[in-house]
Amino acid sequence: MLKLFHGGFSTGHGFLREPNSIRAYSALACIAVQSNQNDCYGGQSINAFDYAMAEGVRKSFKKAIKLAVKRAAEFCDIEPSAEIDFNVCTYSEGVNSAAVENLTKVVGSKKLAEKVYKSACRDVEEETHQAMEALIFNFNTFNMGSL
Length: 147
What we know:
Blueprint: H1 2-5, E1 9-10, E2 15-16, H2 22-39, H3 49-76, H4 97-107, H5 110-140
Antiparallel strand pairs: 1-2
Helix pairs in contact: 2-3, 2-5, 3-5, 4-5
């Protein structure tokens, strides 16, 4: 899957550019499987599917953090004072202390940084759930031709 995602791919009927969010990764995964299904009828499996989707989650999280910082800056009438370090600012189910520390440098307050981080996590969780629901819907509505 990752080879298809990096740089985009051709389905034979058109070219799809590299995805930039988990929703796009999910949709393109369906297109890739469906395109393959159209070429050879039979069972399909995808090795390390979650690993391939993780890149999309990372890209969505990066966008969510940028948007949450922008919203916080506008709401609190502040100017971000540093760049976000995405090497430490990663998604975690619990509060990622390294990410909050980095965001504190950006927004100037630990309390605000925690809210920014939690907001971005909620947004990417919701987007990921919706993307996976769309994936299931797309898989369940494949046109299998005249089998």
